């Protein structure tokens, strides 16, 4: 893959839960460690959990780094902080395969998980009206761009418009959502068009670059990668290709495969501590 722009970043991601009392035990998985790939190299990464407990690490089915841990003592709060140093490069857009190649039986079978609708991505009715028009576009990249533009034209980005449990259909019916919703809707349409597409989660560094070493508020973000002969990234929320400012942490069929922190616990009701993402450029 041909590489272009380069960006070095340090990232701090802090999240967790607070309980209405004491949780007796909890079992958790964190997906907060960036991956190394052809255009992204992780120089350093570690996760700290409070209360302090032993951590185990593995790579899941989709290639995401997972930190697993359980807390067997009463605790009123759970905090998880991930710190990483990443070198990122933007990939040059390569010539896509043809629609005929995309529909070959072996490819459809191999990427079937990224072609089938999930509970999160399934769409029906009006949303599906233009599928035949998009699939008549000769170039796959142009098709994906057209779908992204269509989604942005219908779904307004409104922070807090939906909850983390929202589905593509719910967001479509509301006509507004956040990056997770826009990503789910885009995935639903591209899969219906026969293009293998996966959900990507990670961080987005602000386009207005700060000075080296100065921490700025980053974003926990979601976008897509679709198969065009190679996995190709596109950010449907912002209407741009995946750039060196997009730091990949996890990918899967939908949000349920990539949630940064999830688990089960025994105890009273819990609420999120919220998410803090700080990012700074390195020399």
Write up this protein.
By secondary structure, the chain is α+β, with helices and mostly antiparallel strands. It folds into 2 domains: 3-90 and 259-281, Immunoglobulin-like; 94-257, C8orf32 fold (Roll). Helices cover 18% and strands 43% of the residues. It is built from 6 helices and 17 strands. The strands form 4 sheets. Strands 1, 3, 6, 10, 16 and 17 form a 6-stranded antiparallel sheet that branches. Strands 13-12-11-9-14 form a 5-stranded antiparallel sheet, with helices on one face. A hairpin with a 4-residue loop joins strand 12 and strand 13. Helix 4 crosses helix 6. The longest helix is centred in the middle third of the chain and has 15 residues, at 140-154. The protein starts with a strand and ends with a strand.
Number of strands: 17
Mean pLDDT: 93
Our measurement of the CA-to-CA distance between the termini, rounded to an integer number of angstroms, reads 24 Å
Proportion of residues in β-strands = 35-45%
């Amino acid at each position: 893959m041909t590489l272009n722009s380069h960006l070095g970043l340090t990232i701090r991601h802090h999240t967790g839960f607070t309980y209405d009392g004491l949780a007796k035990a909890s079992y958790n998985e964190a997906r907060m460690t960036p991956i190394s790939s052809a255009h992204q190299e992780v120089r350093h990464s570690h996760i700290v959990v409070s209360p302090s407990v032993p951590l185990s690490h593995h790579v899941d089915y989709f290639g995401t780094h997972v930190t697993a841990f359980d807390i067997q003592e009463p605790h009123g709060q759970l905090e998880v902080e991930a710190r990483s140093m990443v070198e990122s490069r933007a990939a040059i857009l390569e010539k896509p395969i043809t629609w005929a190649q995309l529909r070959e039986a072996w490819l459809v079978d191999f990427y079937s998980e990224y072609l089938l609708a999930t509970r999160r991505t399934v769409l029906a009715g009006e949303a599906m009206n233009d599928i035949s028009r998009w699939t008549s576009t000769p170039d796959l990249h142009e098709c994906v761009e057209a779908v992204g533009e269509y989604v942005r034209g219908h779904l307004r980005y409104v922070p807090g418009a939906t909850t983390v449990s929202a589905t593509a259909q719910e967001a479509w019916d509301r006509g507004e959502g956040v990056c997770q919703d826009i990503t789910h809707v885009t995935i639903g349409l591209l899969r219906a068009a026969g293009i293998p597409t996966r959900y990507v989660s990670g961080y987005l560094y602000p386009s207005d670059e700060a000075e080296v070493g100065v921490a700025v508020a980053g974003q926990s973000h979601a976008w897509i990668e679709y198969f065009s002969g190679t996995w190709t990234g596109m950010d449907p929320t912002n209407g741009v290709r995946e750039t060196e400012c997009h730091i990949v942490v996890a990918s899967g069929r939908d949000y349920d495969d990539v949630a940064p922190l999830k688990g089960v616990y025994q105890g009273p009701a819990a609420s999120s501590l919220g998410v803090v993402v700080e990012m700074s450029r390195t020399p």
